[in-house]
Design brief:
Helix 2 packs antiparallel against helix 3, helix 3 (25-55) runs antiparallel to helix 5 (81-101) and helix 5 (81-101) packs across helix 6. The chain has one domain (2-162). The protein is elongated. With 168 residues, the protein is mostly helical. It has helices at 2-8, 10-19, 25-55, 62-65, 81-101, 110-162. The termini are far apart.
Length: 168
């Protein structure tokens, strides 16, 4: 349900962007444009927050500065804080460009629309890479937790069998 809220915040942005063509310019400037700006900021902020905390599990950016056990695929990135700073900063900026692409004045500026679309493809690739890395880390940590739990059970059984303090 919370995930649906992320997608529902895009609806007012899209609706108000389309509405620009159907209202008088004065009404757009005085009433609808501020609503469009507020809904754009809300959508971009919430989507950015969701990417960092839910999809990438960079809760409060702690993973930027605390690196536990790196796995094979993320070893090149872990330990390099600039990569995560870059990803966080570029994700925020590129989240905002999506709403800019919906602006009415860009409709005939094909080069700008192409550039923003190319940047959106880059943002989605970047999102997917860190999303897969997050799932990989979750999978590996759950496997190691299962292994540790199994080893603990075996060690406890061995201690019980070897122990000489059996009083009956």
């Amino acid at each position: 349900m919370i995930s649906a809220l992320k997608y529902s915040t895009a609806v007012p942005v899209i609706f108000l962007s389309a509405l620009k063509y159907h209202v008088f310019p004065e009404k757009w400037t005085n009433f609808y444009r501020p609503l469009w700006l507020i809904s754009s900021v809300l959508n971009s902020s919430y989507s950015f927050y969701w990417d960092l905390t839910r999809d990438w599990d960079l809760s409060c950016f702690t993973r930027i500065f605390k690196f536990s056990r790196p796995n094979l695929f993320s070893y090149l990135l872990y330990g390099r804080k600039w990569v995560y700073v870059w990803v966080i900063g570029s994700n925020l900026i590129l989240r905002c460009t999506w709403t800019y692409k919906l602006s009415a004045h860009l409709r005939h500026n094909y080069l700008t629309v192409f550039a923003i679309t190319a940047l959106e493809i880059f943002r989605r690739f970047q999102w997917a890479f860190f999303r897969v890395e997050n799932e990989w880390n979750k999978l590996n940590s759950s496997k190691s937790n299962i292994q540790l739990a199994a080893n603990d059970i075996i060690n406890e059984d061995a201690k019980l069998l070897v122990s000489s303090d059996h009083n009956i």
